[in-house]
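Contributing new complexes? Match this layout with protoporphyrin IX containing FE.
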Amino acid sequence: MESSQRGKSLYERIGGEPAIERLLDHFYHRVTHDGEIGHYFTHVPIGKLKVMQREFFSMVTDGPVTYSGRPLAEVHHPLAISRREFQRFTEHLVATLEEAGIGEQDRSEIIAKINLYADEITNEDSFG
Ligand code: HEM
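Output block (do not edit by hand):
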C-alpha cells in the first residue's frame, strides 16, 4: 500500500461516497443484465435495490451507513439462491472493482467480507 493510504478506512481509500455510488451503479448494471442471475432482479423495485446497495456499501467499507432492514437470511432464503449464483454475484463485484482501479489488497478485503454472508444469502451449506 502507498504510504499516503496507510491508516485510512477502506471507505476513504476507495474514494468516498461519489466513487462508491459510481461503483455500485456499474455493479448493479452488471448483475441485473447477467444471463445467470439477472432474472432475480426483474421484478424488484428500484427502491429495494437501493437498499441492497446501501447495505453493501456499509458492510464492505465500514462507511457511514447503518442497516435497519429485515435480516438478510429472511430476505434471501425464500429466493433459493445457490452458492454458484452467489459466486457469480461476487465475480461481478471483483470485475467492477478491477475496472474502478481498486488494488488487489483492497479487493481481497472486500470479497472476504462479502463471503461472510454466504450462509445468510444462499440456501446451501458450505459444501453445497
Ligand atoms: C452479501 C451479499 C448480499 C447482500 C448484502 C444483500 C443485501 C440485500 C438487501 C439489504 C436487500 C433488501 C432487503 C429488503 O428489501 O428488506 C436485498 C434484497 C434482494 N436481494 Fe440481496 N444481497 C446479497 C446478495 C444477493 C444475491 C447473490 C442475490 C441474487 C443472486 C440477491 C438478490 C436479491 C433480491 C432479488 C432482493 C429483493 C427481494 C425482494 O424484494 O423480496 N441478493 N438484498
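Reviewers usually confirm one structural detail per submission. For this one: The pocket of protoporphyrin IX containing FE is lined by residues 37, 40-41, 44, 48, 51-52, 55-56, 69-70, 72, 75-76, 79, 81, 85-86, 89, 114, 117, 121 (CB under 6 Å).
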